[in-house]
Design a protein that fits this description.
heterodimer, B: alpha+beta, ten-stranded mixed beta sheet
């Protein structure tokens, strides 16, 4: 379960601020996050993922208070517990399809790269219809194929949470549907909690819950700013 | 972070951005190549020149430039010093302090098979023993007109025993000058990896014949009156119609003779091989006292050391310029690196989002940079080695 209590956040030298008094997301639920641009949807995903530090308030993931974790602990948590999917896929051009999926194992010690992990990567790619593209550079893939690779990368470590930031934003409707289906079915298979930011209201009926950010929009509450944000 | 993963990702990245990586490696390699090559070549050059100088105890010659005399005695193919005479060799012989080995290098061979002519070294049989030169093919010098060629000359000019080679006139436009002499190649020397591989050796008397001091022609006592200007009981004067022989054969060898006293015949240097240290000192003393006005005796090691001091002063300039170019390259590389990091900002941000630490990202970029540096060093050293193999002779020929 993800529990958010009195979470306040703002970026340095920015008028933006986020304030969420209380929000609970059930384990293995599939939630859509909607709201106007600039309302803080991506920021919330980054806070839940531990990419941004929590300065004020609490974010508890299965009882673990992210605010109490050090930078290194947050990175380890992210590698082991969180799968991330981005709108622009954010794949590494110089790596092949399978190397991109295995990237989380190569950039930290939190996940070991062994034969079982390799087999899982191959299995995920096979499920995604990319079995013939394992050694290909990702630059040779279509947009839809790239996003499938990104989803495989996110699911490699069997994460407890899958955070997706407009994963269908750059895709045509048919491909969007396929990608969403792949992501949600894989998540359900593994009892993964999904939070997905989307602007496509036609997809909302596929989710257990819709979190509308309109409810968090406020101008009166001052927020505590993060002192340092990686840019 | 596991270094194996860092290396793997670095190799993948370098392979993908191979154009950029190759450019950086080339820049680094070129910056390192120059000083490394200069150092290698100069070391090799120093070893060669010192070894030759150490193996040559003393060189005697006419007064003048000691550097010209020493280099001529050691390498033949340098600026000719003023000539001395055979009297100097006799003088050394008479002192009993050293064995004199006269060397006369005045002429070159003509070009053969588009290969430029090489120096003709007139000397005595002692020279071959002194330098421990053996004949690999054919025979040694035995009669006037014979020559033995160094192994490199034989290879380049495609010469072997039984072939002939012509001496080149000193001035092609002087019709009254000496005729070229056709020399018979009787042997090819074994490789000595020294300047002896690049010359043609003849007996010193053959060198004098090339010089025009000795010659052979038809017997004048039997000549027709048309070719004689004057004939008395004691003297015969021939006209220019009597042509000297241009080749020494078994039939005409007896007609060859020298005009004048052998003591006055020219030699460009005399290598003196003292019997011991004391004799060497005494001989040097003689040339500092009683022979001082006529000749000089140089110690090749000292002359070569003076020369090397000049060369290594030049090397310091090369090092300084290399240091400057290395600084410029380092600054440019720093710029390229920072631009590269900016260009890869999205990739770096993605890695961070996935859980990669700043340290790991620094390790990844540093590994790539170190690999490029290592490749640059390898290319530079390989290039320097190649240059030392290929260009060493060319560089030496520039110096001498």
């Amino acid at each position: 379960m993800i529990e958010i209590q009195q979470l306040k956040f703002c970026y340095p030298r920015s008028s933006f601020h986020l304030h969420i008094s209380e929000l609970e997301i059930e384990t293995a639920s599939v939630s859509a996050v909607v709201g106007p641009s600039g309302s803080g949807k991506t920021t919330l995903l980054h806070l839940v993922a531990g990419i941004l530090p929590i300065v004020s308030g609490k974010v508890l993931v299965d009882g673990t208070d992210l605010a109490a974790l050090s930078d290194a602990e947050r990175r380890k948590f992210r590698l082991q517990q969180v799968g991330l999917v981005f709108q622009d896929f954010e794949l590494i051009d110089y790596l092949s399809v399978s190397d991109n999926v295995l990237l989380p194992c190569r950039i930290g010690d939190a996940v070991t790269l062994d034969s079982a992990t390799r087999k899982r990567a191959e299995h995920l790619l096979e499920q995604s219809g990319l079995a013939d593209h394992l050694r290909k550079p990702v630059t040779n893939l279509s947009q839809g194929e790239k996003q499938r690779v990104a989803i495989c990368r996110a699911l490699l470590t069997r994460p407890a949470i899958l955070l997706a930031d407009e994963p269908t934003g750059n895709l045509d409707p048919a491909t969007s549907d396929q990608i969403l289906e792949l992501m949600l079915s894989s998540a359900r298979e593994n009892d993964t909690t999904v939070m997905m930011v989307t602007h496509d209201h036609s997809l909302l009926n596929r989710f257990d819950r819709v979190i509308d950010f309109e409810q968090f929009l406020t101008t009166s509450e001052p927020a505590s700013c993060a002192e340092e944000v990686w840019e | 972070m596991n270094w194996r993963h860092a290396l793997y990702l670095a190799v993948r990245s370098l392979t993908w951005y191979r154009g950029r990586a190759a450019t950086i490696v080339l820049c680094l390699a070129l910056t390192l190549w120059l000083p490394v090559t200069v150092r290698l070549l100069l070391n090799q050059f120093r070893e060669d020149i010192i070894a030759r100088a150490v193996a040559t105890p003393l060189i005697v010659g006419a007064r003048g430039s000691r550097i010209d005399l020493a280099l001529h005695g050691l390498y033949f193919d340098s600026v000719s010093p003023d000539q001395t005479t055979m009297a100097e060799a006799d003088y050394i012989q008479n002192t009993g302090f050293a064995t004199p080995i006269p060397v006369h290098v005045q002429y070159r061979t003509q070009s053969v098979n588009h290969v430029t002519g090489v120096p003709i070294v007139g000397t005595t049989i002692e020279y071959f023993e002194f330098r421990q030169l053996g004949v690999a093919r054919g025979l040694g010098l035995s009669m006037l007109g014979d020559c033995v060629v160094g192994c490199d000359v034989a290879a380049r000019m495609q010469l072997g025993p039984g072939d002939c080679i012509l001496s080149a006139p000193q001035n092609a436009f002087n019709l009254a000058g000496n005729y070229p002499l056709k020399m018979n190649v009787v042997g090819v020397l074994a490789p000595s990896h020294s300047p002896d591989d690049n010359v043609v050796f003849v007996d010193i008397k053959t060198a004098w014949i090339i010089d025009g001091i000795g010659h052979g022609h038809q017997a004048l006592k039997d000549a027709e009156d048309g070719v004689l200007l004057e004939k008395t009981d004691t003297n015969v004067t021939a006209s220019a119609a009597v042509l000297p022989f241009t080749e020494i054969t078994a039939d005409n060898i007896d007609s060859f003779h020298f005009h004048g006293d052998e003591d006055t015949f020219p030699v460009s240097a005399v290598i003196a091989q003292p019997s011991d240290r004391k004799s060497r000192t005494l001989l040097l003393g003689r040339y500092l006292t009683e022979r001082r006005d006529f000749a000089q005796c140089v110690k090749p090691t000292e002359v070569v050391q003076d020369l090397l001091n000049i060369v290594f002063r030049v090397e310091r300039l090369v090092w300084l310029s290399s240091l400057l170019s290395a600084t410029v390259t380092a600054l440019l590389l720093a710029l390229v690196l920072s631009l590269s990091v900016r260009l890869r900002a999205v990739e770096i941000r993605t890695m961070h989002k996935l859980g990669c630490s700043r340290w790991t990202i620094a390790v990844l970029i540093s590994t790539e940079f170190l690999m490029m540096c290592a490749a640059g060093i390898v290319v530079a050293v390989a290039g320097a080695w190649l240059a030392s193999v290929v260009a060493a002779d060319g560089l030496k020929s520039l110096l001498f």
